[in-house]
């Protein structure tokens, strides 16, 4: 790596970095700083506070920490991220990628076809994906899932009414699999074939190959994916909002919906910002933990 | 001599600076459409929502432009369509107002007027209305309701809404259930119990819970609360009454409906909670009694409505809302539904008011009332076609003077929120009516501020 030795070097460096830094600054850092500022005010979009917002210190934070809906929303979000992203997406995507990978003594037929099928959810826009699932999980006999159950003489089941949380969890697994699969497939393909062959020669069973060779080698990629999916899943809003709007009751009110409701349905920008800042803190802690794990690995 | 590379850059920078200065100086002419002061052409923006309303505007607005042109005023109107759903439309309006980008004239729910006015978003129309002879043609009670706590008027009623209990007359009569006007909540409950036996399903719908949005308050809760004799807002002290016997009784009524299986709870917890009970179960005769307004004759159950009921006038009839103990006469709820308002930041207040006057008169108002199923907020529309040909709407208009209503004070949006929470806690059996009333008082205190609430 070359050191910066002259003004010319510095200017070149700044010239290349400036556009990206400016975009990050304007669209990421500044809104975050602004949200932190707003979280200390009683800013609202309606009422007296809309005309004259004032500094309220930690009042919004105190309210949130005292609000059972906020607690349950956070807990629900942790469960949602754990089940759908950390377990569901990671496990299924790895399994699919591993089965489709070309390895010594293992080659699955029609891999391109399967890959295309599994990648479909990635190609569908979020709103369309939600509509698709709204139709699939329709609680009447016309819903696709219920038609299937009907053939077995079961149902109909009101998926989005009686099993809303489970349904949106499955939808998020479905939605997240393609990205994870692509990442894992590329990682598995990069494992030297000779390493796997050596394992085979030493008599490693398929399970031992996976556990003793593949997983340890892929640990950095798995950790990277876990970090990415944790961050994106905590921020999920549209997919769940379009399907259930956080209902029935509060059954699917994950933190993204909680923040939206406070800020844009009840117009309490200060409170919504405070919830957003708390979420940011949680993500920073989780992000730092993942980075620490990756450094440990290195 | 060939300029050096550094000189080329200097020249380029110089030209950029000159260009920027020129742009900045010419920026002073922005809002060039605002030539109204000199009588030049003006383009107004108008925002409304929902297809029937927007299509009517699209069809009739050219007439306004022609009318203005005949008076020598060149005013064009750009129509902007907002989100169809009421809650989403309100969010859009609020964000537009807050960012200073609202249309010159917008349709607003009268229930939101006080909040928007208190936020400083609306143009004070008081003096202009006082100078408009037609203003006196609006029903006195609607004019009174339009006066905000600061004594000013910020909107012109677009339509009057009469809300009542709608029931399936054909089915109740067939099953031998009385269709006499119930006079108390107890009588209504008894009627609902009989209807449940006949229909085999929860027969009575009072909107409740969070999913229905503002409708939980405006289409359900308030009709019960107004029958209790307790105040929800103390107009003398200008404070919300967040704890009262009537409020507790209202939540206990929801509790009773739930515990006896008279209320279809599950649909109320879904997104778009009205779809199943109003658009499927009521037309199918599974839901037999519900709260509804004049719009239901057209918007919901009319031939072109969301869920048409054939021969609706033979199958459906209305009751007024009974009072809690039957000690007062049953009543209809009558108030301004949607209204026209001018944004406080408009560059063209006079032209915008011209448009509001046109929208609130004659042909447009008559067509609007029929299109959306509303009673006229004016007393001189009964002979104007096509409104004059709608007996249900004319009958509803006659109820207006004897109706009860709740002119929404500032903070209504927050009370709507806590009432939605409280009713949801009751219908999901997480709380009793009494417990929900306590929670409501506490939440309201937090949301509105302790100095804006009182307990009785």
Total beta-strand segments of chain B? 13
Secondary-structure-derived class of chain B: alpha/beta
User: What is the 3D shape of chain A?
Assistant: flat
**Helicity level of chain A:** over 70%
Q: How would you describe this protein?
A:
The complex is a heterodimer of chains A (298) and B (456). Chain A is 75% helix and 0% strand. Chain A contains 14 helices and no strands. The mean pLDDT of chain A is 89. In chain B, helix 2 (51-70) links the parallel strand 1 (42-49) and strand 2 (75-82). Chain B has helices spanning 5-26, 51-70, 86-99, 110-118, 126-130, 140-146, 169-174, 185-199, 215-225, 245-259, 265-268, 275-284, 312-315, 349-359, 362-372, 391-399, 412-427, 433-448; strands spanning 42-49, 75-82, 105-109, 155-157, 160-168, 204-205, 233-234, 239-243, 289-293, 316-319, 333-336, 338-342, 453-455. The interface between A and B is medium-sized, with 20 and 27 residues.
Write the topology of this structure.
The complex is a heterodimer of chains A (298) and B (456).
Chain A: H1 7-39, H2 48-51, H3 59-65, H4 68-100, H5 111-123, H6 126-136, H7 144-151, H8 159-162, H9 164-189, H10 193-201, H11 206-234, H12 238-244, H13 255-265, H14 269-297
Helix pairs in contact in A: 1-14, 3-14, 4-9, 4-11, 5-9, 6-12, 9-11, 9-12, 11-14, 13-14
Chain B: H1 5-26, E1 42-49, H2 51-70, E2 75-82, H3 86-99, E3 105-109, H4 110-118, H5 126-130, H6 140-146, E4 155-157, E5 160-168, H7 169-174, H8 185-199, E6 204-205, H9 215-225, E7 233-234, E8 239-243, H10 245-259, H11 265-268, H12 275-284, E9 289-293, H13 312-315, E10 316-319, E11 333-336, E12 338-342, H14 349-359, H15 362-372, H16 391-399, H17 412-427, H18 433-448, E13 453-455
Parallel strand pairs in B: 1-2, 1-3, 6-9, 8-13
Antiparallel strand pairs in B: 3-12, 4-12, 5-9, 5-10, 5-11, 7-8
Helix pairs in contact in B: 2-15, 9-17, 10-17, 10-18, 17-18
């Amino acid at each position: 790596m070359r050191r910066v030795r002259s003004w010319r070097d510095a200017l070149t460096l700044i010239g290349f970095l400036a556009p990206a830094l400016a975009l990050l600054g304007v669209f990421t850092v500044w809104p975050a700083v602004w949200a932190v500022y707003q979280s200390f005010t009683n800013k609202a979009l309606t009422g007296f506070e809309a005309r004259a917002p004032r500094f309220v210190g930690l009042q919004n934070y105190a309210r949130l920490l005292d609000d059972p809906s906020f607690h349950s929303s956070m807990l629900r979000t942790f469960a949602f991220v754990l089940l759908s992203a950390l377990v569901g997406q990671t496990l299924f995507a790895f399994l699919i990628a591993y089965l489709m990978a070309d390895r010594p003594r293992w080659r699955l037929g029609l891999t391109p076809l399967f890959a295309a099928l599994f990648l479909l959810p990635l190609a569908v826009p979020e709103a369309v994906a939600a509509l698709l699932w709204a139709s699939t999980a329709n609680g009447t006999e016309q819903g696709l899932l219920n038609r299937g159950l009907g053939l077995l003489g079961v149902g109909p089941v009101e998926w989005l009414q009686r099993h809303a949380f489970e349904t949106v969890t499955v939808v998020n697994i479905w939605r997240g699999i393609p990205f994870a699969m692509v990442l894992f497939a590329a990682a598995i393909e990069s494992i030297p074939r000779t390493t796997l062959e050596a394992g085979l020669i030493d008599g490693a069973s398929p399970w031992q190959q996976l556990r003793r060779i593949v997983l340890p080698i892929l640990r950095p990629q798995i950790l990277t994916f876990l970090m990415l999916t944790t961050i994106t899943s905590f921020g999920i809003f549209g997919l769940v909002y379009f399907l259930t709007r956080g209902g029935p009751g509060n059954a699917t009110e994950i933190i993204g919906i909680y923040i939206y409701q406070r800020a844009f349905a009840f117009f309490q920008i200060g409170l919504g910002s405070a919830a957003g800042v708390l979420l940011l803190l949680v993500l920073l802690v989780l992000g730092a933990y993942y980075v620490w794990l990756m450094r440990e690995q290195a | 001599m060939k300029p050096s590379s550094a000189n080329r850059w200097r020249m380029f920078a110089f030209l950029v600076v000159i260009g920027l200065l020129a742009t900045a100086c010419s920026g002073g002419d922005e809002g060039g459409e605002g030539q109204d002061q000199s009588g030049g052409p003006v383009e107004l923006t108008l925002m409304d929502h929902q297809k029937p309303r927007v299509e009517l505007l699209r069809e009739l607005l050219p007439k306004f432009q022609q009318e203005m042109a005949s008076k020598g005023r060149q005013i064009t109107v750009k129509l902007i369509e907002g989100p169809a759903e009421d809650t989403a439309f309100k969010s859009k309006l609020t964000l537009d107002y807050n960012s200073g980008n609202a249309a010159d004239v917008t349709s607003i729910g009268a229930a939101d007027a006080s909040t928007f006015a208190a936020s400083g978003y609306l143009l004070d129309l008081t003096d202009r209305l006082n100078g408009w002879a037609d203003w006196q043609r609006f029903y006195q009670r609607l004019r009174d309701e339009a006066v905000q706590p600061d004594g000013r008027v910020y909107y012109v009623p677009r339509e009057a809404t009469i809300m009542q209990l709608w029931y399936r007359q054909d089915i109740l009569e067939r099953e031998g259930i009385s269709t006499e006007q119930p006079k108390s909540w107890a009588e209504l409950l008894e009627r609902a119990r009989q209807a449940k036996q006949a229909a085999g399903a929860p027969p009575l719908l009072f909107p409740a819970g969070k999913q229905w949005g503002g409708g939980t308050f405006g289409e359900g809760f308030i009709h019960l609360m107004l029958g209790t004799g307790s105040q929800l807002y103390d107009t003398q002290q200008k404070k919300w009454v967040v704890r009262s016997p009537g409020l507790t009784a209202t939540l206990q009524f929801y509790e009773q409906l739930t515990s006896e299986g008279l209320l279809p709870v599950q649909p109320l917890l879904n997104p778009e909670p009205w779809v199943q009970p109003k658009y499927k179960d009521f037309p199918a005769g599974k839901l037999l009694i519900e709260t509804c307004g004049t719009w239901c004759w057209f918007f919901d159950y009319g031939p072109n409505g969301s869920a048409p009921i054939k021969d609706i006038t033979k199958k459906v009839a209305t009751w007024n809302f009974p009072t809690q103990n039957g000690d007062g006469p049953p009543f209809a709820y009558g108030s301004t539904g949607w209204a026209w308002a001018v944004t406080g930041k408009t560059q063209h207040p006079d032209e915008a008011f011209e448009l509001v006057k046109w929208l609130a008169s004659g042909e447009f108002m008559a067509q609007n009332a029929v299109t959306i199923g509303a009673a006229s907020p004016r007393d001189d529309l009964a002979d104007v076609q096509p409104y004059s040909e709608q007996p249900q709407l004319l009958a509803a208009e006659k109820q207006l003077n004897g109706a009860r209503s709740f002119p929404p004070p500032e903070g209504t949006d927050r009370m709507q929120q806590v009432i939605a929470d409280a009713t949801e806690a009751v219908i999901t059996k997480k709380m009793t009516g009494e417990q929900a009333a306590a929670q409501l008082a506490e939440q309201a205190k937090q949301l509105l501020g302790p100095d804006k609430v009182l307990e009785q």
